[in-house]
Structures are given as C-alpha cells and as structure tokens.
Amino acid sequence: MDKVVASAAEALDGVQDGMTLAVGGFGLCGIPSVLITALLERGTTDLEVVSNNCGVDDWGLGLLLGQGRLRRIVASYVGENKEFARQYLSGEIEVELTPQGTLAEKLRAGGSGIPAFYTATGVGSQISEGGMPWRYDDQGEVVVASPPKETRSFDFLGQTRDYVLEQAIVADFGLVRAWKGDRHGNLVFRRTARNFNPLCAMAGRVSVAEVEELVEPGELDPDEIHLPGIYVQRVLALTPEQAADKRIEKRTVRPALTATEES
Predict the structure, then answer these.
(1) Among 31, 47, 169, 240, which is most buried by a count of CB atoms within 10 Å?
(2) For position 252, what pLDDT does the model report?
(3) Would you list the DSSP string of 149-172?
C-alpha cells in the first residue's frame, strides 16, 4: 500500500515516447511542475497532452512545448502561451480545442468507466458538426479538421432538445499536484489548485501525484480527502524548496500608497 517513490525519475518510470498524458492544473495554478521538469530531463517526446491549457512560454507544459516534445494537445484554450499559438497556427502541432466543462467531464467519465456521454454544449456549432481546425499547414490552410459527432434528441426536464455525444478520455499517465497526500495516495488539494487535478488523476491508467506535504496513513480526516488513493499509483514527496517554487501567470498589484493616502 505504500505508494511513495524516491525520485521524480522513479515516479515517471514507464512513460514512453508517443504516450498520452493527462496533466492537472489551470494556467500555472496547481500544475505538477516537478514532474514536468523531470519529463523534460528524461527526453520523452512525441507526447499527446490533455490539459486545460499549456502553461506559459517558460514554465509548466510550456517547457515541453518549447523543446518540441508535444505532438498533440487537447485543451480548452491557448491561454497566455505565445509559443503555443505560434506552433498551432504554423502547423507544427495538432490542437483539439474542447469546451472547458466538456473537457472536465470527458476526464471524469474516463476515470468512472463511462465510455461516452451526451451534452448540449456545442450543438449546432463546429463542435458537433465538424470542421474545427485541428492542424494547419505552414501556409495557414486547414489540413486536419474535427469530424462530425453523433447527435440525438432527448426529452429532458420537460424540454426536447439536441445533444452531442462526447467520448471519454483515458490517458496512459495522469500527472497531478496536491497540497497534502498520504502514503496510500489519498490526496487533498488547496482551494483553486484543485481545478483539473482530481479529474486528470482519475483519467490516468497510471497516476502520479507530487505532494507538497506527505503525511502518514490515518492523519487525514476522511472528510477532507478530495481524491481517494484508489486513483493514485505513485506519490512523490516534494522538498520544501520544490513545494515553494510556484509562479504566478499574471501578477496584478495595486499602486503603492503615498504617505498622505495612507493617513
């Protein structure tokens, strides 16, 4: 039952070129930065990444992107990453943009054993009808587009409307970051850093959690556990320095007050 590994390299044992990774985080909040850096050092390439976005140019998944390690990205938006936008528009990478709530449910469904589900989101758009650009060529022409999806009409809550069928996502590995975790893999996430992390762990066939604080089994109140250890296969305890190394995607501060304003 002790799932703690000694190093990031051991935590990523079995990750191979061409695999699909579900990576937690939202912007730079709650990203598994230590595992991402270890992936960079490992030299793994040709990866498909499922994540809300792709970090920024010099941190998070942006590090892998900048080194040309990513083949395909399933995300809900490009975000603040200029290199992500450049590679997408120049045909260097394939991108499947997915509505944010749909992406979250596709990951949750994959972890829950649900192969597909119907949702009203995207009906009547390129999401359901096809034609969403997935890959461009170097001339800006679309060379790979999304296929049309099955739609079906349901009478739900007294209203008949169309829904689109979305397939679940199951990744080879899930990489997440938690505030606390015990040796059995039970995890607690801090506030908004929970975001996509539980879902990415659920969707991974093998899920690895880097934790800022490792505790012993029984120390976590069952009511405070956000993700049970059944979904986690490996736990990496971070050093205090690693746990404190967090970056802010966009810093916004108020101007300093003058002495007169303070009084």
Answers:
(1) 31
(2) 84
(3) --EEEEEETTEEEEEEEEE---EE
